[in-house]
Amino acid sequence: MYFFLNHFSILEICYVTVTIPRMLTDLLNQKGHNSFIACATQMCLVLLFGGLECLLLAVMAYDRYVAICNPLHYCLIMSPQVCVQMVTASWVSGVPVVIGQTWQVFSLPFCGSTIINHFFCDLPPVYKLACGDTFVNEIAVYVVAVVFIMVPFLLIVVSYGKIIFNILKLRSARGRAKAFSTCSSHLTVVVLFYGTASTTYLQPTPNQSEETGKLISLFYTVLIPTLNPIIYTLRNKYITVALRKLLSKLST
Question: Where is the G-protein coupled receptors family 1 profile domain positioned along the sequence (predicted)?
């Protein structure tokens, strides 16, 4: 679990580094100028890290499934070599798809306004600037979104379905509580991330409100990566005790 959390932490650092520094610079300068190549690079990296997060969350769900449902075979199934292979496949698999997706977007004609009504270069606001037919491009986005969002999400649902089924068969209430506590952090992150990301990339572009899209994007690119360390550290009893002491001091 901690091996995957290590890679998940690195991923979150990369994810916020792509968006937050540029956003803060634009807010301070009140200019927001961005070159064509810089915009394409930012979009490519955001899509890459977003797709990687979906895959890595699915891998972590499978890890929890094996740990709870097959504890005696855990070391055999999730050997260090298998863990490295799963993480490597997650990091590498999305690269050619994302590069092709970015190239397809920026090969469209942009003959009108070049002002992006967003705080970073994302697919929906860039599509709205294109003056050509974007129907084929949007279909490609939906296909990629189904592969990188819905398929991992279904794997997570199946994994947790089997986990809950096995937990409910435990006779000990303490055992059930301990098993649920090992999954609560990951499940919270899955609900937060998938709930916002799927709204952005699985909804038709014409139906998306620009202000709502910016708010949702702010959630999955800034707020959720900020909350993830808090969500996972709350499982640590020392952090929980320290937090309770702090809250009691603030309340008195």
Answer: 1-232
pLDDT, position 225: 84
Q: Which residue has the tokens 């590069």?
A: 99
Residue spans per domain, the chain: 1-226
Query: Residue 236 has what pLDDT?
Result: 64
Q: Are 194 and 149 in contact (CB under 8 A)?
A: yes
User: How far apart, in Å, do the first and last CA atoms of the chain sit?
Assistant: 38
Q: Rounded to whole angstroms, how far apart are CA atoms 208 and 212?
A: 7
Residue 146 neighbours by CB under 8 Å, 6+ apart: 202
Over the Cα atoms of the chain, what is R_g? Answer: 20
Pairwise CA distance, residues 200 & 194, whole Å: 10
Architecture of domain 1-226: Up-down Bundle (1.20)
Which residue numbers in the chain have pLDDT < 50? none
Contact 94, 148 (CB under 8 A): yes
pLDDT in tens, 8-27: 888 989 988 998 888 888 88
